[in-house]
Specification:
The structure is a single chain. The protein has 289 residues and is an all-alpha fold. The protein has one domain. The chain is built from 9 helices and 2 strands. Strands 1-2 form a two-stranded antiparallel ribbon. α1 crosses α2. The protein is globular.
């Protein structure tokens, strides 16, 4: 993969804006944290439906109730799961999800039945999308719910931020290393991914993020930080390959055009869709046995 400075410049500028928005959502307060992941989920779900209609054309036949209820149901899932872990003052977060989810689910099913568009395959696709995206992202709420006390105060966003940074550094370094010395292609599913770039990106990400965390947040356990970085980059790479497989099956280059030089929501967040759940599992094994 040849090095292209103009492409790198576009990617860098759009990434800078992206990082500013992401950091604001992550660190401001619980409401911004919740809203950030709802927006990510909605964008990813929209692109997921587009990809699926290319792969399974019959999915276009779902009823209007199924199509739009899909998004409301996803939001309801995020409301329900966030209310159990984020310390919101408003009771609406504890009520909306539990009331909306079964009602919307019932409306979606009845809409398909009455319009004679019920299909087990289409429902399996929708359920898979709900597990893959909003349910996976909701685990970031649980990760945040475990407060992290540091010398700078209660940084409960530290671990979600650590996951994000590890994935971002890995993606960036894999691109740069692969552009310069990448030769051996990993798979035809993602033709621009090379072994040199992938391994280089992982090693640099783990080393840089672990050392930076040790410097800025020395009271965080170094072994835990190392494991979080390791799991994040490994799972993140598999998330990237999975989304690349979906795009290859759909016959498209990018899932969308949200970020110049980066593609759509799924292109940008495919890594954290798997990194988050696996880090959550790691923390659960380590601290809740």
């Amino acid at each position: 993969m040849a090095f292209n400075f103009s492409v790198l410049k576009v990617r860098a500028l759009s990434a800078l804006v992206f990082v500013i928005i992401m950091l604001g959502g992550l660190v401001w307060n619980n409401y911004s944290f919740f809203t950030l992941f709802v927006v990510i989920a909605m964008g990813c779900l929209f692109e997921y439906q587009k990809l699926i209609t290319h792969i399974y054309p019959n999915y276009k036949s779902i009823s209007i109730f199924h199509k739009w209820g899909f998004y409301i149901l996803a939001a309801g899932i995020l409301f329900t799961l966030s209310a159990k872990t984020l310390p919101f003052k408003s009771e609406i977060f504890k009520l909306v999800g539990t009331r909306v989810v079964p009602v919307i689910l019932g409306i979606m099913i009845m809409g398909d039945i009455l319009s004679k568009k019920i299909s087990l395959q289409n429902w399996a696709i929708s359920i898979a999308g709900l597990i893959y995206i909003p349910m996976g992202l909701s685990l970031f709420y649980q990760i945040k719910a475990s407060p992290v006390s540091t010398n700078y105060g209660n940084w409960d966003f530290a671990i979600p931020l650590l996951i994000m940074v590890a994935v971002w550094v890995n993606d960036t370094m894999a691109y740069l290393v692969g552009s310069v010395i990448g030769k051996k292609q990993i798979t035809t599913v993602s033709p621009n991914k090379t072994w040199e770039g992938t391994i280089g990106g992982m090693l640099i990400s783990i080393l840089v993020v672990s050392q930076a965390t040790a410097y800025f947040l020395p009271d965080l356990n170094s072994n835990t930080v190392f494991l979080i970085c390791l799991v994040s980059v490994i799972a993140g790479n598999f998330g990237d390959f999975f989304e690349s497989k979906l795009k290859r099956m759909a016959g498209v280059k990018d899932s969308g055009s949200m970020m110049p030089g980066h593609g759509g929501f799924l292109d940008r967040f495919d890594s954290i869709l798997l990194a988050g759940p696996f880090v959550w599992l790691l923390l659960d094994i380590m601290y809740h046995q």
